[in-house]
Write a structure and sequence with these properties.
A hairpin with an 8-residue loop joins strand 4 and strand 5 (83-90). The chain contains 4 helices and 8 strands, in the order ββααβββαβαββ. The chain is 27% helix and 36% strand. The radius of gyration is 16 Å and the shape is globular. The protein has a domain at 2-120: 3-Layer(aba) Sandwich (Aminopeptidase). It has helices spanning 18-31, 43-50, 99-113, 129-137; strands at 2-3, 8-12, 56-62, 65-74, 83-90, 118-125, 141-152, 156-166. With 173 residues, it is an alpha+beta fold. The longest helix has 15 residues, at 99-113. The chain has an 8-stranded mixed β-sheet with strand order 1-2-3-4-5-6-8-7.
Length: 173
């Protein structure tokens, strides 16, 4: 799927994308500023986690180059299985080019098409201001704050946010 006006195509990830996805995830994980992932995670463990069920992995690409990745799936099983969850990462050189925006809009549309009624981000690090701003622009609301829940490598203990988007707004039930 191509996002109009952005030149970014979103497609399901293929096994041949693993190197590109790892090249995006590795600097994010090593920095330790945004994900609850061990900073020394191995490539194999990181990819196993990113591709783990119940998530479907996508890549954003332009001109044949993978610029970002997302994984989208249900947040919890059973009576909560109508709420999706997603994670996103953008290649450092591609930041500011609309890749994350394209990925989040795609994730919302994909989740809606799969029958999800809402999307929840369980743990958005409060110091990740660019992501918080973008998610809010994409219609997510901060519905909870977890005080000092994340140990940031340079800011110390910072809050984590729970963000929520009702995917049924503006659609017929």
């Amino acid at each position: 799927m191509t996002r109009p006006g952005q030149g970014v195509a979103i497609r399901p990830a293929l096994p041949g994308d693993h190197d590109a996805i790892w090249s995006i995830l590795e600097p994010v994980y090593r920095a330790g500023e945004t994900y609850c992932i061990p900073r020394d995670i191995t490539r194999a463990d990181a990819l196993a986690d990113w591709f783990a069920a119940p998530f479907t992995v996508f890549v954003a690409e332009a001109d044949g180059q993978v610029l970002g990745t997302s994984h989208v799936g249900r947040n919890r099983p059973g009576p909560a299985s109508h709420v999706a969850n997603a994670s996103f990462a953008t290649a450092p050189a591609a930041r500011g080019r609309g890749v994350a925006r394209a990925l989040v809009e795609h994730a919302k549309g994909w989740a809606r098409d799969q029958g999800f009624r809402a999307m929840q981000f369980n743990f958005v690090v409060s110091t990740n201001a660019d992501a918080v701003h973008l998610w809010q622009k994409a219609g997510f609301e901060i519905v909870g704050r977890l005080p000092a829940a994340f140990h940031h490598p340079s800011h110390g203990y910072v809050d984590a946010l729970v963000m929520f988007n009702d995917l049924t707004r503006g659609t017929l039930e």
